[in-house]
Amino acid sequence: MTTRLISKKSITQWVITTFLLCIIFQANSQNKSHNSNQKVNQLIEQAEQSESNDEILKLCTEVQTILQTEPDPVFKFDSYKKAGVLLYDSKFSNKAKVFLSEAYKYKDKASNKEDVAIVENYLGWIESDNHKYSKAINHFQEAIKIYKNLKLPEKLGNAYNSLGAMHWYLRNYAQALEQFDHVLMIGEETDNTTLIKKALTNKGVVLNTLAQYNEALICLERALELNQLENDPLSRATLLINIGNINKELRNNKLALENYQQALVIYTNHSNKEGISTCYNNLGEIYLELGNIFKAIENYQTSLSISKEEGDSTSIAVSYVNIGRAHQSGKQYSKAILYFEKALKLMFSFDDPSLKAETYLHLGQTLTINKHYKPAFDYLEKASKLASSLDEKVLLADTYNSLSDWYKLQGDYQEALNYKTKYADLNESIMDEQAMLSSARMEAVYKLLHKEEQISILEQDNIDKSESLAMARNSRTIYLAVAGALLIGIIVLFISFRMRRKAERMLTLKNNELKQLNQTKDKFFSIIAHDLKSPFSSLMGFAEMLALNAESKNTKEVIEYSQIIHNSTKRLLGLVENLLQWSRTQIGTTEYKPSQLDISIQTHNIVSLLRLNAEEKDIIISPKIERNLVAWADENLYNTVLRNLISNAIKFSRVGSMINVTAGVKNNMIEVSVADSGVGIRQENLEKLFLVDSNFSTKGTLNEKGTGLGLVLCKEFVEINKGNIWAESQLERGSTFYFTLPLLNGNNTD
Fold first, then answer.
1. pLDDT at 529 over 60
2. 594-742, what's its fold?
3. Among residues 213, 234, 422, 469, which one has the fewest Cβ atoms lying within 10 Å of its Cβ?
4. 629: nearest Cα among 656, 649, 604
């Protein structure tokens, strides 16, 4: 058998042929890839030039199909990024997230790191749109790192601004203010008016949320001044609306009207229908607050007309509800019912359960007044179920109150009492939540103030250390060192001798004070033991009577004894709470967090809370507070003192009388007074009012009982707030209680 050998010439030809085929294949692949890249670029360019959102979506979908087979990660990143941005700007948020997430996969391959920051920003905004603020924060923080490295201050400022907004949505107010301060600092360093204005506007919004209205106004008014330097009228209109909202909160209704009207002129000149509608709606709210029903309805109707032109079903329904509320306030109940029913019919076209529950409640209330009891009850039940499922506690409490009124009109007093109790319990829960929220808000402000204080201390510490170092370097001679040591030794001996003498005197004094304090507390605890024993005895007695009458099914007696037990436990709880608060002051754990306190706002809030108690005795509470009265004091301590004094005034005032609450500046302090025209106090008892070892407690004009500790607590809290408290009284002519607070100035905020 013979073997055929392949010649060298044949091998060479085979190698050359294979090589040529590889080159042709690679060229074809590159040409194909080049063609697909050209196609993608053309599609994106067409999308950028298109004015149709549907066409943009179609073109970007084609891009997505082509990119699935694209091997180049750099080209994929750039193309997905461009298409994702286009989709987001065209309101296709969810589709944009798909494209930008694909781009995010190839971010490490990106040729331009600024483009990566753009992807991070857009993904952050998309997460924010979906209320996933924590995820959004992560994206904005990554964008900030990139802009810092690239030294792009304007884009860095905008990223900080977005980060601040996320913290605001999460109610991290201190963090939000910190980010907006970064924006402000960058704006001022680079003389960027747009960034400064943006930072001031957002700080104003956060401070408004924190009820720091004066500081919020300062920020927004400064932003308004900067706006005049730019040709940006729509931004000015937005600022005016925000300022108007703050003035509305401050009850500066005249100023709020001016703000909304100025914004209205701007929106009208620019044919901004949404802005015009918002202004007319806000004007309606102000006029309704002022009791001008006709003007309120006129503005609501104008807002409604614009919403109808725009075809905005939600805004139309809101306008119907507002017009119904205005007619309800004006006692035009038939018209109110008509508008509420119109709103409900329209709500089938969109989903807003909260607005629906509110409308059910208004309809139920109005139909009850019109004596259409059956449909009124149906609407109130719907409002109750919907508000409960939404956990809308304020709405649910109002519904319980309306159901109590409904049952009372039917003569079913047992159910009326049941719903009134539910209303009272839920209202108390709401007040507790509001107090916690207020505490959280004030904590945010406190953290900022504390941070600034720490910075100031550190700066001073650095100065002190530098000065000490300089002195040490100048102390070079042994003679001065020895002389200094001898002098210090003499001084130390002298001071220790003086301190020992002083310590002995202080020890003697403290021992005497301790003996007196122990005697006082012994007497105090004996009083407390007596006061605790009395309500417990009453509880046991009436509980036994309640059980006996329940067996005999005597409903009237059961209700009567239940009410007595309820009142007794309320008084007992008040005593225990006061005792707890007093004990905290004695061991030094009462929190003292001073802040800028708007006396007018705080006082009106307390008066509003106690107005229901006063109305039970047909008493009018009249607050007269000087304008722009700002104290440097702890809000919780101030509120507790004022609430206690007004409650006492109600207790000892006669039916149909008036209580005057005033506040003004006197001797560089804010002086607050609560005056009643009640039974008065004997002169010999005035001295006992604020003593812990005095058992001075009397019944009110309707035999209301107190705990006997209220004024003792008031004295402790006023003194913690750096003030004084005293009383003046004439028997059968009334009493006036005064207390003082530090006035806000540059010294006490340092």
1. no
2. Heat Shock Protein 90 (3.30.565)
3. 469
4. 604
Pair 110, 120: CB distance under 8 Å: no
Cα–Cα distance list, 234 to 206, 320, 622, 686 (Å): 21, 27, 41, 61
Nearest CA among 56, 107, 49 for reference residue 84:
56
Q: What does the domain layout of the chain look like in residue ranges?
A: 544-589, 594-742
Going by C-alpha positions, the residue among 570, 591, 583 that lies closest to residue 528 is 583
Q: Quickly state the pLDDT bin for 144 (edges 50, 70, 90).
A: very high
- Residue 411 backbone phi and psi in degrees, to 5: 85, 5
Position 492 scores a pLDDT of 63
> What Å distances lie between residue 371 and 333, 344, 409, 690, CA to CA?
11, 21, 9, 52
Helix or strand or coil: residue 661?
A: strand
pLDDT for position 439: 47
Sheet of 725-730, strands arranged across = 620-625, 658-666, 669-675, 734-742, 725-730
Read off the tokens for 635. Answer: 């809000």
Average pLDDT over residues 78-91: 88
> Quick count: other Cβ atoms within 10 Å of Cβ 108?
8
**Higher-pLDDT residue of 39, 706:** 39
H-helix or E-strand containing 112?
Answer: none
SS (H, E, C) 149-182: HHCCHHHHHHHHHHHHHHHHHCCCHHHHHHHHHH
Task: Name the residue among 613, 591, 592, 611 with its Cα closest to residue 603.
Answer: 611
H or E segment to which residue 211 belongs = none
Nearest CA to 192 among 221, 155, 139, 147? 155
- Specify the 3-state DSSP secondary structure of 598: strand
Look at residue 484 and give its three-state secondary structure: helix
8 A C-beta contact, residue 400 and residue 384: yes
**pLDDT of 376 over the 70 cut:** yes
Q: What is the SS3 assignment for 675?
A: strand
Q: What is the pLDDT of residues 205-255, one digit of tens each?
A: 888 877 777 888 888 888 888 887 777 888 888 889 888 888 888 888 888
Q: Name, in order, each residue with C-beta under 8 angstroms of 614's C-beta and a sequence gap of 6 or more.
A: 620, 621, 650, 659
Q: Which residues of 616-654 are buried (b: 16+ CB within 10 A; e: fewer)?
A: ebebebebebeeebbbbbbbbbbbbbbbbbbbbbbbbbb
Exposure class string for 486-523: b at 16+ Cβ within 10 A, else e: eeeeeeeeeeeeeeeeeeeeeeeeeeeeeeeeeeeeee
Tokens linked to 115: 């483009």
Q: How many CB atoms lie within 10 A of CB 151?
A: 7
How far apart, in whole angstroms, are the C-alpha atoms of residue 209 and residue 382?
32
Residues 602 and 435: beta-carbon distance below 8 Å: no
Comparing CA positions, the residue from 723, 515, 499 lying closest to residue 633 is 723
- Read off the pLDDT band of 455 (50, 70, 90): very low
How large is the average pLDDT for residues 275-289? 91
In one-letter notation, the amino acid at residue 659 is I
**Residue (of 347, 339, 419, 409) closest to 374 by Cα position:** 409
Residue 707 has pLDDT above 80, yes or no: no
Least confident interval from 69-83, 374-388, 394-408, 497-511: 497-511
Q: What are 206's two structure tokens?
A: 């956060």
Query: Where does the pLDDT of residue 542 fall: very low under 50, low under 70, confident under 90, or very high at 90 and above?
Result: low
CA angle 136, 137, 142 (to 5 degrees): 100
**What pTM value is reported for the model?**
0.48
The 10s digit of each residue's pLDDT in 565-619 is 666 666 556 556 655 655 555 555 567 889 999 999 999 988 888 887 788 888 9
Give 708's DSSP letter. Answer: S
Using CA atoms, how far residue 193 sits from 78, 154, 188, 189, 197, in Å, is: 32, 11, 8, 10, 6
